[in-house]
Amino acid sequence: MSRRTFLKDTLALGVTGAFSSPFAILRSLSPDTDIIGHGDFKYRVHRSWGQLDAGRYPVKDCHEMVMDKRKRLIMLTNETKNNILIYDRSGKLLDSWGNRFPGGHGLTLHNEGGEEFLYITDYDLKEIYKTTLDGRVLLTIKHPKFIGEYNDCDRFGPTETCIGPNGDIYVADGYGSQYILQYTAKGEFIRKFGGDSFIKDDKFKQVHGIALDTRDPARPLLMCTERIKNCFKRFTLDGQYIDSIYLPGVYMSRPVFDGDMLYSGVCYSALKHHMLTLNSGFVTILNKDNKVVSNPGGTAPIYKGEEPEPMVQDKPIFKHCHDVCVDDDKNLYVCQWMADGTYPVKLERI
User: Using CA atoms, how far apart are residues 253 and 320, in angstroms rounded to an integer?
Assistant: First the structure.
């Protein structure tokens, strides 16, 4: 049988009901044979896992994903036809909502006394929203110029939030003036720290992400992304700088914690002239000692002393990894920015 005849017969089956949609056909034909990663953290790539009908459920950039206590995978895109897509772990679409976040970028899930809420950052509208899981807005944090903490001319482009142990809200101004802004759970301003600098350790160049690090329960910390300088930076909850974790070649996205492990999507790596290169992303995984143990899609981590050798893309599996979500079986779901409307890719732990 020729390839053309095979495809014709396959499509005919789809019309008569053997497949529910053209995307089911793509799933059935996808080889999904790539194995990536290193050591104990290797994965089988499932490119077609999250594919949907792009006419009904389009995405621009798949920015971030979280998993709620019902094991639903909730993904944020900046496509206002459906800002939120909700999957089950098989890749089936369960629900969608949202048409008001043209710059939807950061997505944080927080369990507040048994009830879960979302925090959405929109760098276009320059606001942060606390919502219910079905999209009802409960709190809005506006541009800090309205409370006198920024001047009218100061840039504000919020990219991420995290929630402290007492409910305080931390906002990363990653596309703006490079501050971390701290608010109470009710949205009352407490302080800001950081700011824009290439030189000073306690300041940032693209503080793209932030997360609460509770791996030491006695000493919770803030883990902040400094993408342009290839660092994660650690701060106390009141904004005092502690140290930096330098990952040469790695232009990382937000830190994501699962148990003792830290995961991050790498948006770019430094393939050419030690500078960031388009379409050069991968995933990086660090252990409890903040050492890289695996780079799915990237080169193997090699340490000489305390810092790793430069790490870059090894296989062109990804373009620009923007976020990683980890399920209970330690499978990963990778969201991408500027990747031709690509839906999330599943990495099955093997």
Answer: 10
For the chain, the average pLDDT equals 92
Each residue of 86-112: pLDDT tens digit? Answer: 999 999 999 999 999 999 999 999 999
Long-range CB pairs of 179-187 (<8 Å, 24+ gap) are 179/207, 180/207, 180/210, 180/222, 180/224, 180/235, 180/239, 181/144, 181/149, 182/239, 183/141, 186/139, 187/139, 187/140, 187/141
CA dihedral 135, 339, 331, 243 (to 10 degrees): -90
- Where b means 16+ CB within 10 Å and e means fewer, 39-54 reads eebebbbbbbbbbbee
* Burial status of residue 106 (CB atoms within 10 A of its CB: 0-12, 13-18, 19 or more): buried
Query: Could you report the per-residue pLDDT of 262-319, keeping only the tens digit for each?
Result: 999 999 999 988 889 999 999 999 999 999 999 999 999 999 989 999 999 999 999 9
Specify the DSSP element, H or E, that contains 3: helix 3-16
Do the Cβ atoms of 158 and 178 come closer than 8 Å? no
Q: How far apart are CA 311 and CA 271, in angstroms?
A: 9
Q: How many other β-carbons are positioned within 10 Å of the β-carbon of residue 243?
A: 12
Write out the H or E segment, with its range, that includes residue 27: helix 22-29
Q: How many CB atoms lie within 10 A of CB 148?
A: 8
What's the chain's Rg over C-alpha atoms? 20
Distance CA 299, CA 289 (A): 20
31 pLDDT tier (thresholds 50, 70, 90): low
Q: At 115, give phi and psi (nearest 5°).
A: -105, 135
CA–CA distance, 347 with 350 (Å, rounded to integer):
9
Q: How far apart are the first and last CA of the chain?
A: 35
For tokens 């276009």, the residue is: 124
Distance CA 337, CA 73 (A): 18
CA atoms within 13 A on the CB side of 9: 6
Check if the beta carbon of residue 335 is closer than 8 Å to that of residue 322: yes
Whole-model pTM: value is: 0.91
